[in-house]
Amino acid sequence: MPVDERAPAVLRTVPPPVPAHRRSPGPARAVVVLAPLALTLVLGLWGIRREDTMWGDESVTHQLAHRDLSQIWLTARHVDLVHALYYTVMHGMYGLFGGGLLTLRMPSVLAMSVAASGIGLLGLRLAGPRAGLLAGLVFPLLPQVQKYAQEGRSYAMVCALVTWATYALVAGVPHRARRRWAVYGATMLLACLLHEFAVLALVAHGVTLAVSRVPRPVLRAWGAAAACVVAGLLPLAVRSAGQSEQVSWIEGPVRLHYFLVVAVLGLVCARVPLEVRRPVRLSALAVPILVLPGLLLLLASLVKPLFVDRYVVYSNIGAALLLGALLDHLHRRRRSPLLTWTAAVAVLAALVPPSMSLRTPQSRSDDVTAIGATVREEGRPGDGLLYLSGRHRILTGADPEDTRSLTDLALAQDPVSSHTLAGIELPAREIAARMLEFDRIVAVRAAGAHPSADPREEAKTSTLRRHFHEYGTTRVNGARVTVYVRGRAPSPKTGTGPDGPGTSGGTTR
User: Fold this and answer.
1) Every domain range in the chain assigned CATH 3.40.50
2) Residue by residue, what is the 3-state secondary structure of 149-177?
3) What is this structure's pTM?
4) Is the keyword Transmembrane assigned to this protein (predicted)?
C-alpha cells in the first residue's frame, strides 16, 4: 500500500500523570474516633455491677429516678436542685430500661466513651492523628476516669459535654461562624445545668483564647457565648445557693492528691515540643483545663470548703491530651524503642491493681447494699429502727424490703410524700416516747459521723443511753448497725450473767 493511501493515524490523548497526594485523613480520623470509644466502652463494662453493690450518692440517684417527674422537681425545691436535670434524665432512662444497676451506670459508661472519642478528635486537630489516637486511648486508662465511668451520677455526662464544647471552641476559632459558637454555648450551658462547677471550664477556655492571642472577633464571639452560658446558669446558681448545706459535709479538700499528681505530670508534659502549628496550641488548651478548675475550687475553699475531685473530672481532658502529645513525641524521636515499650508496659502493669480495686465495693466511701442487708439480718419483725442522724435514712433507702418489717421510730413523713431525701422526723419528745414503747431497736449510724446538737438527735442518744443497752454492733463499709435492748437481755455470744451486754456493752462483729 502506498504511503499516501494509509489510514490517518488516530490521535490519542494521554492523560496527565496523577500528582502524588497525601493519604486521605478519613481512615485515620475513623480510628482516632472509634478506638478510644471502644476501649472506654470495654473498660466501662468490665465489673460495672461492682459485685451488685451501690454507694450512697448512687442510692440517691436510684431513689429519685424512681419518683414521678413532678416529685423530682418538688424535691429539688428543697434539696439537690443542682442535680435535678440529671435525675430527670435518669427518670427517663429508668422508664425505658428498668431501674437496675446497669441502667443506673450505663449512661456514664456511654458518656465517657463519647468523651474519649472527642478527646481523640481534639488531639488530632491540635497535634496530628497519632497524638489524637494516643490521647483518646490514655483517657480511659486514667483511674479517675475509670471510677466515674461506672458511677450513677452526672460527672461523666458533664465530662462528655465539656469535651465536645471544647472541640466546638477549637473548631470555632478559625471559622468564626455564629452557628459554631451557638453550638459551643449550648453545649457548655447544658454541662453547667447538669453540674454548676462545669462553669469553671468556661474560665479555662477564656484563658486558652487569651494566651493564644486569637483575633478580637473570636474573643467577642466567645464572650457573647460565655455571657449566654452565665445568664442561663444564673437562676439555678441563685436558687441552689440556698441549699448550701448539701456541701456542709466537706471539711477539707477531698482526694486532693490525685489532682496534684496529675496536674504536675501534665505541666511536665506541656514542655514537649510539637511539630504541628495551630491557631490554638495543644498546651495552651490542655494546661488551663487541667489546672484552673481545681485551682479555683481550692481558692474558693479558703472561704468555704468546696474541693471534691469528682466536681472537676473533666480536668482529665487536659491530662489525656498532654500525655498523648508526650507519647507521640517519644514515638517520633525513636531513640530507644525498647525503652519506650518497656516504660509503656510498666505503666500499664502499674494501672492494673487500682483498676481492679475500683471495681470492688470497698472503692467507695460506703456500701448501702451491705448496710441494708445488715439491717435486715439484725432486725426482727416488729423491732424499732432508728437513724443517727435522720439524714442517714438514705443509707437504707435503695431497697425498701430491707426495712419493711421494722418500725421507723422517728419518721413523721416519708421521703417521697415530704419531697425530701430523708423524710421529716417527729419532735424530740415524741421520738423519745416512741423509743420507750419498744424493747429492741436497730440503730444505723454513718461511719465517722459527729454528734449533732439537734434536739432530735440528742433525744435519740440520751434515751438509748439511759434506757437501753448495746446488744451488738456490726460494722460495714460506711456505717455501724447496732442493736439495742431494754433491760439485761442476753448477749449473742456470752449469754446472761455479769459479762452480759448490760455491763460489757455488747459485741462487735
Assistant:
1) 368-508
2) CCCCCCHHHHHHHHHHHHHHHHHHHHHCC
3) 0.89
4) yes
- For residue 491, the cross-strand partners are 495
Q: Which residues pair with 250 in a beta bridge?
A: none
pLDDT per residue over 225-261, tens digit each? 999 999 999 999 999 988 877 777 788 888 899 999 9
Dihedral Cα 100, 101, 103, 108, nearest 10 deg = 160
Strand, helix or coil for residue 479 = strand
**Residue the block writes with cell 453550638:** 183
Q: What is the pLDDT of residues 269-327, one digit of tens each?
A: 998 887 666 789 999 999 999 999 999 999 999 998 999 999 999 999 999 999 999 98
Question: Are 78 and 420 spatial neighbours (Cβ–Cβ below 8 Å)?
Answer: yes
Which amino acid type is present at position 294? G
CATH number belonging to domain 368-508:
3.40.50
Report CA-CA distances (Å) from 450 to 21, 239, 395, 408, 458.
Answer: 70, 28, 16, 22, 12
The CA distance from 78 to 412, in Å, is 17
**Are 420 and 75 in contact, with CB atoms under 8 Å apart?**
yes
